[in-house]
Specification:
Layout: E1 5-9, E2 27-32, E3 42-47, E4 52-59, E5 64-70, E6 75-81, H1 88-105, E7 113-119, H2 138-147, E8 151-152, E9 165-169, E10 175-181, E11 190-195, H3 226-235, H4 238-244, H5 249-266, H6 286-307, H7 313-349, H8 353-359, E12 371-372, E13 378-379, H9 382-394, H10 405-410, H11 429-437
Parallel strand pairs: 6-7
Antiparallel strand pairs: 1-3, 2-3, 4-5, 5-6, 7-9, 8-9, 10-11, 12-13
């Protein structure tokens, strides 16, 4: 499938270069140009199936950023370029602008899925354990990552021995693989992140059609009378129905479906239809109130930094913002813990609730993510995944055509190849390692 998002940095574009001149068929372009200085700039190519509700752009003639919010999947995608000689104050202002965007999007909703891509030019930083660094802007980035629970997922050098090009996300569990490969287009390597789901597959056009009450989808199976349903199924003369169709399989399948639907509807209530237009408004949660307060304080801090940098209020306001960030994280984690505890209690009495609870966090209708083939390559093609699963399933079973029945009968229960039993045997560590290597890593375990 085509990539859903392409992020480019150091675009070197100016305002006299139109979007049409840098367009890619099937994609919409969103950009931030450095118009008064050579170099710099960044842009995002988003697949035209991704409907962008909000676009935010930042440019201080040094740093560039463009943000795109996709409402249908509640996802924020960001491209950033920070030059090596960027001032700490400019990068801090960029992060404040981005934080305001995140707070505004998540004010009445949960935190969006965030993907921040770009060239940050932070050399000599060990991202596995970042204890030492040269740039004074690195602590600002760490604070920002901590506030939004972001993880840096690029682990290989993108230029020389340094990881200059970063990918930050608050949902690293959705990332199946991150690869780094050289490209002739730049002295930086290209970073490719493969998600465990198809982002384009999440997009569905809004439908104004009302759900028909005479379909399987309109049935409330949780409150169905399955005993009465089974009795009705037993009373049906299925052979007589087949005779009515003149033994035509296609007609019989259609009549079979209608009969099952009729019995199901007779013994099952109809699902309650909800309408978003008449749904109850969201309550003003403590997290929402704290986020709103933090956004206002950040605005005050930014205004004081511009008008009166020596103000005595700045340290106090900064400390209050940091405390709010900690309280927001604590409240979110506490709510998650309470929700999980409630789910565990419900599952004990109703195990089926587990599937309803897990489905709330599902990103895609498909339950099968990307799979790795025998060549150690990830694939998302449905046909390839079906073949891999079929091959894995078949390896559990032995081939009856290759079984030597007579040898098994004559062995009197001994393992194949042995004619007599033995009591003592010895094996070494090397024998165990050799035997483990003979195991097929793509085979599933049998039931026994």
């Amino acid at each position: 499938p085509p990539p859903a998002v392409i992020a480019v940095t150091e675009t070197w574009l100016k305002d006299y270069i139109t979007d049409a001149q840098v367009s890619i068929k099937g994609y919409n372009v969103y950009r931030s140009d450095r118009d008064k200085r050579v170099g710099g700039g960044c842009l995002l190519y988003l697949h035209d199936q991704l409907l962008v509700k909000e676009v935010s752009e930042y440019n201080d003639q040094e740093n560039n950023m463009v943000c795109c919010y996709i409402e249908s999947s509640h996802t924020l995608i960001v491209s950033i370029y920070k030059p090596p000689d960027s001032k700490s104050s400019g990068f801090s202002s960029l992060l404040s602008h981005l934080q305001d965007t995140i707070d505004r999007i998540s004010e009445n909703h949960r935190m969006p899925d965030i993907y921040i891509l770009g060239d940050f030019n932070f050399p000599n930083v060990d991202w596995k354990m970042p204890l030492s660094y040269q740039s004074s802007s690195v602590p600002d980035l760490f604070d920002f990552m901590d506030k939004n629970q972001l993880t840096q997922i690029v682990t290989k050098a993108t230029r020389g021995d340094n990881i200059l090009d970063l990918a930050l996300t608050n949902v690293p569990r959705y990332v199946a693989e991150v690869s780094v490969a050289p490209t002739i287009l730049s002295d930086h390597s290209m970073v490719k992140a493969l998600l465990g789901f198809d982002m384009l597959g999440l997009i569905s056009a809004p439908s104004s059609e009302t759900r028909s009450p005479h379909t399987f989808r309109a049935t409330d199976y949780h409150n169905a009378d399955f005993d009465a349903m089974n009795e009705a199924f037993r009373a049906v003369n299925w052979e007589h129905l087949f005779d009515l169709c003149d033994h035509d399989p296609e007609q019989y399948l259609e009549l079979l479906k209608l009969t099952i639907l009729q019995i199901t509807l007779l013994h099952s209530p109809t699902c309650r239809l909800t309408n978003d237009a008449h749904s109850k408004p969201r309550r003003n949660s403590p997290v929402t109130a704290m986020k709103r307060k933090r956004r206002k304080l950040n605005a005050k801090i930014h205004a004081l930094q511009v008008r009166n940098p020596q103000s005595r209020l700045l340290p106090k306001l900064t400390e209050e913002v940091n405390l709010l960030g900690y309280n927001i994280q604590s409240e979110i984690l506490n709510n998650l813990s309470l929700r999980e505890e409630k789910a565990v209690q419900t599952i004990r009495s109703n195990p089926k609730y587990f599937f309803s609870y897990a489905k709330r966090f599902q990103k895609t209708k498909s339950s099968i993510p990307v799979l790795r083939n025998s060549s150690n390559e990830l694939t998302s093609d449905p046909r390839s995944k079906a073949e891999l699963l079929q091959a894995q399933y078949q390896k559990v079973f032995s081939d009856p055509a290759k079984a030597d029945i007579s040898a098994c009968l004559d062995s009197e229960g001994l393992p194949q190849g042995l004619s007599t039993s033995f009591l003592d045997f010895s094996f070494s560590k090397e024998d165990i390692i050799s035997a483990l290597k003979e195991l097929d890593p793509y085979s599933a375990c049998p039931d026994d």
